Sequence to fold (184 residues):
Amino acid sequence: MASHWTQLNSGSELSTLPAAYCEPRWYAAYTSANHEKRVAEQLVVRSVEHFLPVYASVRRWKDRRVTLQLPLFPGYVFVRMALQDRLRVQQVPGVARLVGFDGTPAALPEEEIEALRACIGSGVQAEPHPYLRVGRRVRVKGGPMTGMEGILVRRKGKLRVVVSVDQIQRSVAIEVDASELFPV
Fold:
């Protein structure tokens, strides 16, 4: 269990944890396969702020069509918490680990998550896309994605900006109008 206090070298004085452990930041929780929605439900029960972006996908079965809400970033749920409270998240059934380096969870840029939340909340059409690192970089200058940077792609005659979350190496393609873009 994470302690709110750490011992100094002398052993007699106690001090608080660094501010980075106490301030809430966004982290990516890696989940077991197909457990994103269950993890999100458990985070609600534990009063942990989280973000599970989903998109609508139409699936055709033999006798009907069904619209499913699938995770935009399969295998991940974003959580906002202070690092000292990570045990509340790591104990959720279905959470494998928090994404990080050398055993320490790595915080995601606040602007990235807030831009994704605004984008998804505005009803912009988004879908998962293979992770991209190279391509023609653009910045969005209008609409709910203002300020976001990504890589421009054309698919089915429409322009899309591929926005990547580098720490989890996942991307999402978001439909945009050409007038809202300028090169970076």
Remarks:
- Residues 99 and 136 are 28 Å apart (CA to CA).
- The chain has two domains: 16-108, 110-184.
